[in-house]
Description:
Helices cover 54% and strands 11% of the residues.
Amino acid sequence: MDSVIDHLISPRPYLTAEDIAFMRGELFSFVPTFLGAAGILLLGFLFYKLTARPLRKILMKGGIEEWLARIITNTVYKSIVVIIAFVAALGQLGIHVGAALTGIGILGLALGFIAQDSLANIVAGFLISIDKPFRVGDYITLGQYYGRIDLITMRSTRIRTQDNTYVVIPNQKIINDVVVDHTANGDTRINIRVTIAFDASIDQARSVILEEVPHIEGILGNPAPDVVLDKLGERGME
């Protein structure tokens, strides 16, 4: 292609038959090179399609969470295959591969500075996957939020609260904060505060509550429910 450009910028006022013949020859000689580059990109695409699913299964068998294995194969692995195929295609076209890699490196460094917070959350997502402090479906308390984990991604963890609201928490905050997992050890005790009048009978209230509680679905017989006087509140006994 450089020879075509040099030929065109030569001091001539118009294209001659010789110019046209030269350009035709250069164009036809470039077609195999172009098809070779396109073939490399197609092979890279097919290679990713054939290896992505087996790689995801291997990662999951190795103990990596399904959501992280999916992200690794769909994002990280795919990006690596695309970059390798793209650089190989540039080399087929005669473009200096070293310069292309340098440009990609500089671009990646610039994007890294721009997305520092996002990268920190992604690293935190990897740490959560490795440490496994909780799983999807667990009930946790994080700061002022209590609810069930609905989704874990590379950047954030999504919690559905008892009010049916969706709380999106950055992963970096999770690994730097205290997380209480109410599901990890199985059964969980739930404390329900009930207020009765000051002149009411504590024994009668305890008897009525203990008589009704076993009829609630999910209540365990062992350990059995219990009713205790906690404190005297402003409006009655709790």
